[in-house]
Amino acid sequence: MISVNRSGEVWVFAEQEDGSVHDVALELCGKARELADRLGVRMGVVLAGWNVRELSYRFIGHGADRVYLVEDRRLEHYQTQPYARTVCTLIEKHKPQIVLFGATALGRDLAPRCASQMRCGLTADCTDLDIADVPDPAAKTTHKSLLLQIRPAFGGNIIATIINPERWPQMATVREGVMPLREPNLQRKGEIVAEKVAFEEQDFAVRLIERHREPRKVNLKGARTIVAGGGGVGSKANFKLIHDLAGAIGGAVGASRAAVDGGFIDKAHQVGQTGTTVRPALYIACGISGAIQHRAGMEESAKIVAVNWDKEAPIFGVAHYGIVGDLNQVIPMMVKAIKERPKE
């Protein structure tokens, strides 16, 4: 644990692989820039790897005042202990007040290790972040300018706000897609700070022998149109209707957790609190009741069309257009109408 440093910077861990930056790191830069401006401090990025210096300018363009660059051939591929040593060494040296990670597979592995090493708190899977003064009636004081770490709790039935008034840095992981990816300012100037980390032999107790990467099956975050099916589709065979509609309009196929749990489609297609957060131009929800966990991942879509036989389904509360009816009849009619539409 480091002492409370209210002039400390706001940091983002720059997740990258083979020189390719993960979108969530750039999304977090926009939010970190906002938080840093409100606190009146600098925003920094921790970038570790090998031959990654050029990536620093991307982070500067997305709002970083400083990029703390650690280049070491042994960091070419991610391993938990060396990366944790890197992040913790820099935290101890520069004493940031906030450190943010993406809630990716890598971030969920790295952040808890860093929080444990620094003996500070960590809030996982945040969907929003804010800065506020928080009164403490027991101590008869007010904690100034704390990070509000906001996330769903109890299965998404409530929204919890978590604070760390004493054990700093304030640390959180943030879900992919919940922060907008802002346009970079390529004219921004920033500082690249080259850092060295003294590794120990035990940091490399695990050796990487081979790497096998499975290509992503679907890119829901990048899709302009998504057709999603829920438990109301009824079966894996019937899920062909969702594929048919998506194919007719050139969209990606999404799903609710109920559809994934039912074995209708694999988890890569899941939208929602425990899946992917999306903001397409058009989201068509078929047979999805609209539980809060699902709505959290799609309610910021530009246009939402819901198809459900239950007129009281919560999905209609966020839909711009609703069709009350049996999807087995409605979807074939939609596909037919789309295919018969005159070509422009």
Features:
2 domains; 5-stranded parallel β-sheet; single chain; 7-stranded parallel β-sheet; alpha/beta; 344 residues; Rossmann fold
Structure in words:
With 344 residues, the protein is an alpha/beta fold. It has two domains: 10-204, 3-Layer(aba) Sandwich (Rossmann fold); 225-339, TPP-binding domain (Rossmann fold, 3-Layer(aba) Sandwich), CATH 3.40.50.1220. It has helices spanning 23-39, 56-61, 80-94, 105-118, 240-249, 257-261, 292-295, 327-340, and strands at residues 10-13, 16-17, 20-21, 43-49, 66-71, 98-102, 122-126, 128-136, 141-153, 158-162, 170-174, 191-194, 225-229, 252-255, 282-286, 303-308, 321-324. It has a seven-stranded parallel β-sheet with strand order 7-11-6-1-4-5-12, sandwiched between helices. Strands 14-13-15-16-17 form a five-stranded parallel β-sheet. Helix 3 crosses helix 4 and helix 5 (240-249) packs parallel to helix 8 (327-340). The model has no long low-confidence stretch (mean pLDDT 91).
